Amino acid sequence: NILITGSAGQLGVELAARLREIHGTERVIATDIRERNRIEEAGPFEILDVLDREQLAGAVSKHNIGTIYHLAAILSANGEKQIGKTWQLNMDGLLNVLDLGRNDENNPAGSQNAVSHIFWPSSIAVFGPDADREMTPQNSPLNPTTVYGISKVAGEQWCAYYHRRFGVDVRSLRYPGLIGYKSEPGGGTTDYAVDMLQAAAGGNAYTCPLGSHTRLPMMYMDDAVKAALDLMAAPEELVDVRTSYNVSAMSFTPDDMAGVIRRHVPDFDVDYAPDSRDAIAASWPDSIDDGKARQDWNWKPDFDLGAMVKHILDQQALSSEA
Ligand code: VAH
């Protein structure tokens, strides 16, 4: 069976729904530190604190878990307001989950209950101002400016260490900003793109917390879920990168997005009030080279900016008519 931590988060809600479509509702145990999010899709849900090793171990043995999608984390913008908690949750939470993949006495669930596969999302937040801004290579200097980014750099190294030393099959993706319409973003720097689309769909104006020309790598949620499932389904020998794979689908500025939205909502009004999130975004790349993921396990995104905006606004129109 499959366990998801952070299942009420922006990625978790959609990953849980997709995994349930594929494997059956009862085989996917959705967990989070708080009650469920917007989508009250039927299926097993439990409150779980990833800092509680015994609670984690209990869930793994009780539900016969073979695969864990470990998504619970504090994101970049929120993380800067609570640096100790962000480091503790992002780091200790990951280490607690990695130990559940070990075949020795350090596995709190017991070596006989070792999980066979773990997915853990990293982020373009691992890159800092000294990495190439355009087409940032898979192997770049990693000097992040946020606590979240520091926790992702350290987490990638821990994943590689647990794979190398203990044989834990943990796989990871450096996600760009993720954009969906079925779940709320969770305090990141790229949340503006979701909020701008929601404002447009509701016929409202939008004040953007990033500068109009701040370019960022982005991805539609359907592609983000596809990338995780494709990576997890790849034969082990093809997964050559055991820190985390660069992946991306598009790059755009808030001004680019507003322009595409106006194809559908002609009078959509945006103004700009850059805040601390713009400084974080400015430290990240403008675009990402994901050639290694394309080469190793045939990564390919389906949505570009135009297709994504059209798809989301069409869906929002459908749901508002409903
Ligand atoms: C954040 N949405 O903004 C996340 C992601 C690349 C951005 O890591 O923190």
From TrEMBL:
InterPro entries linked to this entry: Epimerase_deHydtase (IPR001509), NAD(P)-bd_dom_sf (IPR036291), NAD(P)_epim/dehydratase (IPR051225)
GO aspect biological process, one term: L-threonine catabolic process
Lineage: superkingdom: Bacteria
Domain called NAD-dependent epimerase/dehydratase: residue spans: 2-247
Annotated SUPFAM superfamilies: NAD(P)-binding Rossmann-fold domains
Single GO molecular function: L-threonine 3-dehydrogenase activity
Protein family according to the UniProt entry: Belongs to the NAD(P)-dependent epimerase/dehydratase family.
PANTHER family noted in UniProt: L-THREONINE 3-DEHYDROGENASE, L-THREONINE 3-DEHYDROGENASE, MITOCHONDRIAL
Protein name: NAD-dependent epimerase/dehydratase family protein
